[in-house]
Amino acid sequence: DGKDFSKWTMTGNANWRIADGIAEADMPRGFLVSRDSYGDFELRADVWARPESNGGVLFRITDARDPGIENGYELNINDTRKDQDGRTGSIVNVAKPLVKFDSGNIWTTVEIRAVGPKMTARLNGTLTAEATDTKYARGPVALQAAGGLVRYRNVQIREIK
What we know:
Blueprint: E1 8-12, E2 17-19, E3 22-25, E4 30-34, E5 41-49, E6 55-59, E7 73-77, E8 108-115, E9 118-123, E10 126-132, E11 142-145, E12 150-159
Antiparallel strand pairs: 1-4, 2-3, 3-12, 4-11, 5-8, 5-12, 6-7, 6-11, 8-9, 9-10
């Protein structure tokens, strides 16, 4: 809601704070993990990061205490990632980016749709990744601060029934 973290649990060492309705952190590594769990859903959020920052939206996490690509999916926001197969717009280790999308220093609207095993990711309306994978079916969502300044605002999650 842009006012507090009452619907989220903080994990890790990130220095999360809210300023002008924006959740931000500039110390790694930490997550804001939703208190609710989602199976089929649509998520929309605005993300701002520097090109060298490492942020992202993780979903269907199976270990809310330590979210990561080892126990959930991640739509990555990291323009300068060494392994460009997992750069901005990818679903890390599941779907390489379909286009090169640079999100550094601009507000980027992230959209994730996950229904059953099918997942799509869009950045500013551009389809950046799609995949079919059955490894993770349900779990919380997490906003990531893994390096550099990252900001999140207008986070909306709608469960699909």
